[in-house]
Structures are given as structure tokens and as C-alpha cells.
Design goal:
Layout (H helix, E strand, L loop, with lengths): L2 H6 L7 E2 L2 H6 L13 E3 L4 H14 L3 E4 L14 E4 L7 E4 L4 E4 L5 H8 L4 E2 L12 H6 L13 H4 E7 L5 E3 L5 H8 L1 H15 L2 H10 L11 H5 L3 H9 L8 E8 L1 E2 L3 E9 L2 H6 L1 H6 L4 E6 H7 L17 E9 L2 H14 L10 E3 L2 H12 L1 H8 L5 E8 L5 H14 L6 E5 L4 E8 L4 H21 L18 H5 L1 H14 L54 H17 L4 H16 L6 H5 L6 H12 L2 H12 L1 H18 L21 E4 L2 H5 L10 H11 L4 E2 L11 H5 L3 H18 L7 E3 L2 H8 L7 H7 L4 E3 H10 L8 E6 L3 H5 L3 H11 E5 L13 H4 L1 H7 L1 H8 L5 E4 L2 H11 L3 E3 H9 L2
Parallel strand pairs: 2-4, 3-4, 19-20, 19-21, 21-22, 23-24, 23-25, 25-26
Antiparallel strand pairs: 1-2, 5-6, 6-10, 7-11, 8-9, 8-10, 12-14, 12-15, 13-14, 13-17, 16-18, 17-18
């Protein structure tokens, strides 16, 4: 019997993934390493985890646990069994009025903070990847970030933790009898931990070294400070789990003490003539109360000069200049004034190139942070196709930070990394650097190997710093742990691993690795595929925004599989492996992609994987199909009655289908109109839910009339389409036909731009706002003079114009569709709802519903998977209304939740009705 059969005996076969496409999809994490697992499993209970440990031992197959897979050091890849916890370990409970939070490993850190926001709290760790990384990784890597320093990381904010050891022992440090139980059920382990503690306690030099190492950021090796900080075996073991990178056990749950989420901030950018001057200012700024001090060298500033929102002075700085982004964070207004005063006292003593400019304005603060956060995408986007993006972090003692930066820059020059940049959390002496590296040539691999050895010599040998600050040891620093810690501390780490995992099967090769070349084994060779996605750095930031992430593939995985197919076409063009991938790729990668573009919102290099899918759909069409669909676009007025008939006939067979819309549109006065109202083709074809009297067309026109801002619907609106149904399916010519016809008609309807054009469906509004590249020269000129408004924007104008509510709803829940996010209208949408209702809720788990126009009719499983978390959140509370701004998304949400979602225009109509 095979491995799959063995796994299926302990886990539901639906959660055992052994197809090649699944194993390839999970072979990559955010690091430069790639290893294909033998199987991917999705355990759901502690019992299943214990069974996996037993199976791993009996078959002698390595076992690795993975959450989001955003780690940068190769901790989440294996050639054994990969247990993915992102789908069934996402529970969260806020406790003690926000003072603590209980989390499972499969919930995203940013999601936890959104639940804590109403309590004015957050978790201590604040990694830059917090919108994508999961609590399992935050705990396993002892993550920190820009502000949390060494006192608010996962180790120091841990209240209690529950974990499963490779032996199968389930340990909960919150259990009052937990320590006694550990001693009773695992006496050798308990005594072994105490023995290691005694070795440290009786070695004052080692004990002092451990204390000193953890006064600065340090995630290289195991958390030996647990032996210094605690006495009981259970407390030592619980804290050893933090930072162990899944090599000592499986973390099932943790309770963290929260920290204040400061609402008031005071932010500024300071420019210095060189790094030394910037570093010399750190102590004074830190002592004045600055919580964030982000250093950027000249190369990093040069990488973002001239980009939108970047201060103009950055482009004119001297060749050796540097900058500090400084932020004070406060709880109260009085505290903020104190920090402002402290800051003003320090600034005159600093040798600044430009006068300091601090602000409390949120928009300006966001623009300054865009400079810092824009460094990675800027460098990533400029790299050559097929090269890897390496982001590393080290720590230097703060008094020698400037020398450390200089030595890093010298290493870059010595080893030919001309595009490398240095930036980081200067308050903690924690520097990040970015390298662009190819691994498709042995000489390039050798260059990287030499650089890593030289880096270790500089950081450890010259400065006694840390080779890892917050990214974890992983595979890339495992060969250098002994060099940093010394033989005695390293032998304690080795003994610890043998004590807890005597078979060495739990995530082997991570943290401790006897292979001196481990950091240059299993390296990714990034095959070039399509230009739309070649800049992907496989970070995984996109995944939490993808509606198909729990059904088939995520954007990162689509690209990973695409790259593997390209590689196989080079080496095995007729091989069985390629054939397997090609057989499963259409459904997993293309059919179930919603092409919603939400992945681009979170992508550091602005990749919209939907553009790749649209290209692949386009390439799958025959020339004949292209011609036929283009002809249909030219005769779109014929399609509408056919579609309405289809809904009417389909409704006889399926009760979940909406009824068709009325075939005629209201006749309104052009002379009185303040705006042209273009009902989208969805509004003209799909009617309101059964039992609803008014269509969206009637709702918009009624509310506009009440506001004294009447609209006009053109008599020839039928037959006009924005082209989105064609572009999403990859019919480029048909899209261009529809787009040009729409803009030409808009031009005529609006009196050559004299009136704004209002669109009642947000996805169509977004399409029209971004339609310019598809237009011919004449229509581009027309487009530039048109004002196209989404319905939400128009509704705000009606409210500002004096429309008054006669009643208010008690509580409503909103679903901002993807296009509302991309048009940055979420706040406006909420503002409209707050005008209408006493309480407005936007679910924390709200995301793309996956209905994707008509795709939800054909693939209901996509919508079901995409809305699972949001539906559960909505079902947990009672609301008096459910609203969105896209008819098809409303259908999808109604199916998912069993609640009657409708257009927000129905809400406006209800509260303004005479």
C-alpha cells in the first residue's frame, strides 16, 4: 500500500492531496528554496496531528507543518509529508476585554488585529507581512517588526501555549497540573530540560552570553533564553516552542498578551548627509520616545525616487545620503503634545540636510510610510526575469550600526551585488538588505555561497551581532548557527533537538543542519513564463485575498505551477509529469480564477494574476471563436433578450436563479437631468429577487428624483456594454468593440462630457474607469473629458446635496465588492450606509465572493469556498439589512449566507421614502 492509502486511514481522503499539481503548488514558500513533498495533508484536529506523528515515525518519513508559507528562510518546505494548517486552524477568541487573545495557527496576524481593534489593542509582533503571515509562523519564528523591538515579540507576550510533541504528547502550559503531568508522562524529557538548564546555570560565561544575545533581536538558533528565564520544565518547553520553526512540535493554540494600538501618531522623514550621521541620531530620537526609527541608505532611496507620492527632495540627495523615518505613537492628546515637544527639543542638534517636516495628518503619514514600504516592490520590479529576490536581516550593536552598514555596502560591491539596498529597524540595530540573485548558473550559486560566508564573518566575527533578527534561521542560516553561538551553546541546541525529536523527522534541516552547504541546496530556478507574472517573488502576500484559496490554487500557486510546467517543457516535453499538470491546470488554475484582481492589492510588485489567466483564456480561443464573439459584441442588443429568456426558462428548473429584468427602461426627461444614468447590462438583464417589487433602475431614478438631482436614461442604452464579460473570458477583440462603442455613446449621451455618467454596478464602473488602454485614439480623447461615476460616488453627491432620511435602519451589514476596494470607495460606501443606519458592520472576513459575473452560476463551489468565513461571521449576528453594489455579488452572498442581500440603493430608497 502507498503513502496516500496510509494517510487516508487517519485523515479524510478529501484532505489528502497527492496529485502532482497539489504537491508542486506547495513545493515553494517565500524563500529561495524549493522541495516537492510526497503528500500534502490538511489536518483538522489534534488527534489527526498525533496520528501524523505516529505515521511519520513508522514510515520514517519527515513531517513539516506549514501555515501561510510566507517565511523567507526555507522553513516551510519538505520532501516528506507537508501538513498545511491554514484551512482548519483559524479560530480566535478575544479575552479579558482585549487584554489577551487566544489564537490557532491558521489565522492571519492582521486578521487578529482587526478583531482587537475595537478594544484599542493589537498583538505585539508587527512584521511587515502581518497582512499575510499566520499566527503559526509568527509564533514559530518569534516574529517582531518595526515597533515591537525585543520586549513585545511573541516570546515576551506569550501567556500560555498548547502544543503537540513528536511523541504525541499534548501539552498545555495553562493547565494547573501541566508541569506535574509533563514530569509524570515524559520524565526523561522533563529531566533532560532541567539538565540542560543546569549546564547553562553552572556556566556563568554562557549564561551571560545568552542574556546579552537576547537584549538585541535574535532569532538564530533555538530560544536558549527560555533556560535562563524559567524554572519549571513546562515553562521552559513552552517558550522553546517560540522560534523553533516547527522543529520541536506542533503549536495548536496560544494565548498572547496584547499591547496598546496607539491611535495618535506624529511622523516625519529626516535626511542626513551620510549613514553615520543618521545612525548617530538614533539614540537621541529613541530616548525622546520614538517608537519607529526606519533607516534607509542612499541606494534604497534611489530605488523609489520619482515614484508617485515620494517626496521630491529624495531625488536630489547627495551620493552618500541616508534617511530616518521617525514615528511617535501615543494614547492621548496630552501624551502626543509631550512627544512633539521632546522631538522638537532633539531636532536642532541633528545635522539635517532639509528642515524637519513632521505631521499628524493620516494621509501624509501614509505617504511617508509608502516610501519605506515601497523599497521592496521597487527593487523587486526592476530585477531581471528569472532571478530571485532575497531579503535578509541581521543585527549590529547600535553603537556600531553605521560601521555595520558600511561593511555591508562593501560586501555588496565586493561580490557584485550592484542593486543591493540596506534599510531597517534602526532603533533595534536590525538591518534588512535586498539582493537580486540568479541560481541558474553554478558560478552564480558559488558567488552567493561566498557572500554568505563573508556576511557571517562580518556580522559575527567583526561585530558579534546576530545573523537573524526576525526572519528565522531556516535553511539559509542553519550552517552558521554554530559559528554565531559557539560550540557549547550549539551542543545544547543539538541535545535539545535529540531530546524532543529523537528520530529527527520533524522539519529536518531547519535551524540545525550538519551540511555546510545546506544554504545552497534545493535552490529555486525561476523559469520565465509570461510577462504578466514573471516579477512574482512568491511571497504569498496575495493568497489571503484569493477567492479560490480553499478550493484550488492561489495566485502564487498558479504562478508556481506555471513555472514548473515551463521548466518541464524544457527538460521533459513529453513526460508524464508535464502531462499530469496540463490535465489539471485548466480547472484548478484557469476556470476557478475569479479574475477579480484583488491579488494585486496586496502584491509587493503589483502583479494581477488575473491578467495571466485572461491571457491563457485568450490563447485557448480559436480564431473562429474570436470572430464569433466579436460579432456578438457588435450585436449586443440581440444578446440581452436571449439572456432574459434564459433566466425565465432556467427559473422553471432552478429556484435559486433570479428572475429576468423588465425589458423596457423608464423614459425620463433629458432636459432636467443632472447626470446620465447608464444601467449596466446586468441591471438590464437580471431582475430583483422574487418578492422585491423595485428594480435597481427604479431605485436609482427614484432616489435621484427625491434628491432634486434627476437622471436621464438614454433610449439606446440597451445593447451597450462596458466589455467586462468579454475581457474576463479572454476575448480581447470583443472587449475592444464593446469598450469603444460604450465610450462613443457616453460622449454623445453626456453632451460631449457636459454631464457625468453614473454606473449602477461597481465592477462595471471600475472597468469603465480603467478602459482607456482598450480605446482607439478618438475615443481616448473623449474618455479623457468624460466623468464616470460609480453609484457610490453619485450617492454621496446626493447626500451632500441635501437628501434627507425620513427613517433610519437599526443595523446593516455591508459587502464591499472587489471593485469598490480597487476604486478606494470602501470608506465612501460605509459613509452612505451610516447616513442610513444606526449601526453599520463590515465583516472582518469580507473578501471576494467568487461569483465573478456569471462564474458563480457555473461554479457554485467557488462562491461557497470564497464566502465560507464571511458567511459564518454574518450568521453569528442579526441585521436588519444586507447590502452591496453589484447584482451578481448580491446573488452570491445571498446563496452563501441565506440572507437577502440587495443593492444599497434599496437602503437609500427605504430611508428616504415619503
Amino acid at each position: 500500500m502507498g503513502l496516500r492509502d496510509d494517510l487516508c486511514r487517519i485523515i479524510d481522503p478529501r484532505r489528502v492531496l497527492t496529485r502532482r499539481i497539489d504537491r508542486v503548488a506547495f513545493a515553494n514558500d517565500a524563500s529561495v528554496y524549493r522541495i516537492v513533498p510526497q503528500a500534502v495533508v490538511l489536518p483538522a484536529t489534534i488527534g489527526e496531528v498525533q496520528d501524523l506523528f505516529r505515521l511519520s515515525r513508522s514510515l520514517r518519513i519527515p513531517l513539516t507543518f506549514r501555515a501561510a508559507g510566507t517565511s523567507l528562510s526555507g522553513q516551510a518546505v519538505t520532501d516528506g509529508i507537508l501538513a498545511v494548517v491554514s484551512r482548519h486552524w483559524g479560530e480566535l477568541h478575544v479575552e479579558g476585554d482585549g487584554r489577551r487573545v487566544r489564537v490557532q495557527p491558521g489565522i492571519v496576524g492582521g486578521q487578529v488585529n482587526r478583531h482587537l481593534q475595537k478594544f484599542g489593542a493589537k498583538i505585539g509582533p508587527d512584521p511587515a507581512s502581518i497582512g499575510a503571515c499566520m499566527m503559526g509562523g509568527i509564533l514559530a519564528n518569534n516574529s517582531s517588526g518595526m515597533c515591537c523591538g525585543v520586549t513585545q515579540n511573541a516570546y515576551h507576550t506569550l501567556h500560555s501555549i498548547r502544543f503537540v510533541l513528536p511523541s504525541g504528547l499534548d501539552v498545555d502550559t495553562a493547565d494547573p497540573d501541566g508541569d506535574a503531568r509533563l514530569v509524570r508522562e515524559a520524565p526523561a524529557l522533563a529531566e533532560g530540560l532541567l539538565s540542560l538548564k543546569r549546564r547553562i546555570d553552572t556556566n556563568p560565561a554562557l549564561r551571560d552570553r545568552i542574556r546579552n544575545k537576547y537584549r538585541m533581536k535574535n532569532t538564530n538558533g533555538y530560544s536558549l533564553n527560555a533556560f535562563v528565564d524559567f524554572e519549571r520544565p513546562i515553562d521552559i518547553l513552552g517558550h522553546l516552542m517560540i522560534g523553533s520553526e516547527g522543529t520541536l512540535g506542533f503549536v495548536a493554540e496560544a494565548v498572547l498578551n496584547t499591547v496598546p494600538d496607539y491611535p495618535l501618531k506624529y511622523t516625519g522623514m529626516l535626511y542626513f548627509d551620510n549613514v553615520s550621521s543618521a545612525c548617530a541620531a538614533i539614540a537621541a530620537l529613541r530616548d525622546s520616545g520614538a517608537r519607529a526609527l526606519e533607516l534607509m541608505d542612499r541606494a534604497s532611496l534611489r530605488s523609489i525616487a520619482g515614484q508617485p507620492g515620494v517626496p521630491g527632495e529624495i531625488g536630489d540627495l547627495p551620493a552618500e545620503a541616508a534617511a530616518l523615518l521617525v514615528e511617535y505613537q501615543c494614547e492621548t492628546r496630552d501624551e502626543l503634545e509631550d512627544r512633539k515637544r521632546d522631538c522638537r527639543d532633539v531636532l536642532p542638534s541633528l545635522p539635517l540636510l532639509h528642515p524637519p517636516d513632521f505631521t499628524t495628518d493620516a494621509a501624509r503619514q501614509a505617504a511617508l510610510w509608502t516610501v519605506r514600504k515601497g523599497l521592496i516592490p521597487s527593487v523587486g520590479a526592476m530585477r531581471r526575469r528569472g532571478t530571485s529576490f532575497i531579503l535578509e536581516d541581521v543585527v549590529f550593536p547600535i553603537p556600531r550600526l553605521a560601521d555595520g552598514v558600511s561593511d555591508l555596502q562593501t560586501l555588496f560591491e565586493q561580490y557584485g551585488y550592484d542593486d543591493a539596498i540596506v534599510f531597517g529597524h534602526a532603533k533595534d540595530g536590525n538591518l534588512h538588505f535586498v539582493l537580486i540573485q540568479a541560481f541558474d548558473d553554478p558560478r552564480e550559486v558559488a558567488r552567493y555561497d561566498r557572500f554568505m560566508h563573508a556576511l557571517a564573518e562580518v556580522v559575527v566575527g567583526r561585530y558579534d551581532g546576530a545573523l537573524k533578527a526576525e526572519h528565522g534561521t531556516g535553511r539559509n542560516m542553519a550552517p552558521f548557527v554554530g559559528a554565531e553561538w559557539g560550540p557549547e551553546a550549539y551542543s545544547i541546541m543539538q541535545e535539545l533537538k535529540r531530546l524532543i525529536d529523537p528520530d529527527g523527522l520533524l522539519n529536518p534541516g531547519v535551524i540545525l543542519n550538519d551540511d555546510p552547504k545546506a544554504h545552497v541546496r534545493h535552490l529555486k530556478e525561476l523559469a520565465t513564463v509570461e510577462e504578466e507574472v514573471d516579477q512574482c517573488i512568491e511571497c504569498g502576500f496575495c493568497e489571503q485575498h484569493c477567492p479560490s484559496r480553499e478550493l484550488t490554487l492561489t495566485p502564487r500557486q498558479r504562478i508556481v505551477v506555471r513555472r514548473e510546467m515551463a521548466r518541464l517543457r524544457e527538460v521533459q516535453p513529453r513526460g508524464a509529469e508535464l502531462a499530469e499538470l496540463e490535465a489539471d491546470f485548466p480547472y484548478d488554475a484557469i476556470d476557478t480564477c475569479a479574475v477579480d484582481g484583488m491579488c494585486a492589492i496586496a502584491c509587493p510588485v503589483d502583479i494581477d494574476t488575473g491578467a495571466l489567466v485572461q491571457r491563457l483564456r485568450f490563447e485557448s480561443h480559436s480564431a473562429v471563436a474570436e470572430e464569433l464573439v466579436a460579432a456578438a459584441a457588435e450585436r449586443f442588443s440581440w444578446i440581452e433578450p436571449v439572456a432574459r429568456l434564459g433566466l425565465r426558462l432556467g427559473g422553471l428548473l432552478r429556484s435559486d436563479l433570479p428572475p429576468p429584468a423588465r425589458p423596457t427602461l423608464p423614459r425620463l426627461s433629458r432636459a432636467r437631468a443632472h447626470a446620465v444614468y447608464f444601467p449596466s447590462c446586468v441591471s438590464r438583464v437580471v431582475g430583483p429577487d422574487r418578492g422585491s417589487a423595485a428594480s435597481i433602475v427604479e431605485l436609482v431614478t427614484r432616489v435621484a428624483e427625491r434628491a432634486g438631482t434627476p437622471v436621464w436614461i438614454p433610449g439606446d442604452a440597451a445593447g451597450t456594454c462596458c466589455g467586462m464579460p468579454f475581457s474576463s473570458k479572454g476575448y480581447r477583440r470583443a472587449h475592444a468593440v464593446a469598450a469603444n462603442r460604450a465610450i462613443e455613446r457616453f460622449w454623445n449621451w453626456s453632451g460631449e462630457g457636459a454631464l457625468p455618467v453614473v454606473i449602477d454596478t461597481s465592477p462595471c464602473a471600475l472597468t469603465l474607469k480603467r478602459i482607456r488602454p482598450s480605446l482607439d485614439a478618438a475615443n481616448r480623447r473623449r474618455f479623457d473629458r468624460l466623468e464616470i461615476l460609480d453609484g457610490i460616488e453619485f450617492a454621496l453627491r446626493l447626500l451632500e446635496g441635501g437628501l434627507k432620511p425620513r427613517v433610519r435602519k437599526d443595523s446593516v451589514v455591508l459587502h464591499p465588492v472587489c471593485s469598490v476596494h480597487k476604486m478606494e470607495l470602501v470608506d465612501a460606501f460605509e459613509a452612505v450606509a451610516r447616513w442610513c443606519a444606526t449601526s453599520v458592520t463590515r465583516p472582518i472576513d469580507a473578501g471576494c465572493c467568487g461569483f465573478a459575473g456569471d462564474r458563480g452560476f457555473a461554479l457554485p463551489e467557488l462562491t461557497a469556498a470564497a464566502t465560507r468565513a464571511e458567511a459564518a461571521e454574518v450568521a453569528a449576528s442579526a441585521f436588519s439589512g444586507y447590502y452591496s453594489s453589484s447584482r451578481t455579488c448580491e446573488i452570491g452572498l445571498s446563496r452563501a449566507t441565506g440572507k437577502p442581500y440587495q443593492s444599497f440603493w434599496a437602503l437609500l430608497d427605504e430611508v428616504t421614502r415619503p
